């Protein structure tokens, strides 16, 4: 090749193109990570891509100069040459930033291509300007414009191809085409520009102090930039494979694979054997450990559990942490019997004592099992089946394992249907309140009522509280439902007072959820003010578990309500986990003996428990109410032990307001 005395080394020309295309392909490999990341990580990938591409284009320019044998001496000004590198880097960064926006619109693609092409052109002319020559350079305007147009058009074509390969991290022919077009953009612009450049001999007075010989500048600069390009590429690959990949696919607390790791494992490794198993593992009552000992202890416990699960499974499968206290175990080759044995082994290992920061902790787990291909042939189906089986283990008493079956699936679908309808029930006025009397067996008079919630489903009729109350508790719907119930009960009780039908306190069961927000006092006060009911005609029933959970805060809220005049009773006493040493600290008016003891009151042991509960209540100046009274023998026993107030079917079933008025008339002493 020859032009006005300038000769070209064909191999060097091809090398310059190869350098530009290789740099472009490396940059495109890095830019793909931008589409799958966000925040600082996204900016890091974008900067790495721009550095590799910009430095590669800059290096190509000077390799292109080296491909030319100039018939005169050339020197370079390093500051201007360095500035041309800055132009290249900035143009590449801005172009790639626009091209990787969430929506690749035509206008943005045009702008991105224009910026990249213009940046290549500016870098070229600044690089030419950095040359100190014995000649002057004159440019043919039309051909120079053509070179800029070639740079912009090829750059736009390269950017336009982004959408063809942005979702593929491996080799893609479209990615290769895009890299080739970027190579054509810079080499085409460079050699067309040189072709249209005219060199005229000028009086050259020699190099100034800041100038260096051409070969030294080219070899040193290009070598350093090439090394920089390789270092950035290798560093980014290392970061992706060893740091970012671990961050993306592993849980930082337990170092187990996370949900993303689970998805990748199921795509590539799990399926293929004749039979495999998926085990969902969830710790029982883990929240109470976090609440009582703090999240730091809870995190250490999770690390211990993760270690035990890893040792149990060993090389037979893989353990994943899905979040919170949920783990998943994948056994790619496993029979049903082997899965049951593994579940038993897991339950035994998990419930062994833990010693953490001086605390001896005990925790159990519930396990749900699904099998492939019996319960599904894809990750989603197997996880859903195992999750359903896990809920069965939880509902049946915890510290158990269950294998999925279709009956569980029907139960889960029914539960999901109830939850969906429950969210609309309050707005559709489907709830109603029924009242069960509390009877003074000595005075033969009603001394109170317990308000009980019922759900009249438009399709399924009356839904048992045992079915919908747990769902309302889990979803938090119990809070607005209880708000409504408080207002309804207070208003109804006030109406009875005005009509002289009844003049007794009505009790309402409180959920633990009502104490979480710290606004129970305000809610109760609002219901009393709106209805005009005097506070001592309202009684709140709490269970022992509520009283003992975050006891200090619960006692503070109950004390505030007691000071308002509202009564408090401790429901299901004797079946919970409260300590008798703390009973006197809980601001309670009444102890309610659970019906479990009343039903089995013929047993000497149950009779002894009832007698002790009554004695405790008497000694603490508390009233006592017996629940579940159904026979005269039970009444006689309770009276002999000192209990006079009773509640049960013997005295009256839960009744709606329409029936209760007549019941009051018929049972007035």
UniProtKB/TrEMBL annotation:
Gene3D superfamilies: 3.30.70.270, EAL domain (3.20.20.450). Residues 415-668 form the EAL domain. The chain crosses the membrane at residues 6-32, 44-70, 76-97, 109-129, 141-162, 174-196, 216-239. CDD domains: EAL (cd01948), GGDEF (cd01949). It comes from the Bacteria. Residues 274-406 form the GGDEF domain. Residues 8-200 form the MHYT domain. Keywords: Membrane, Transmembrane, Transmembrane helix. InterPro entries: Biofilm_reg_signaling, EAL_dom, EAL_sf, GGDEF_dom, MHYT_dom, Nucleotide_cyclase, Rev_trsase/Diguanyl_cyclase. GO terms for cellular component: membrane. Signal peptide: none annotated. Pfam families: EAL, GGDEF, MHYT. This is Diguanylate cyclase. It comes from Paenibacillus graminis. The lineage of its organism: Bacteria, Bacillati, Bacillota, Bacilli, Bacillales.
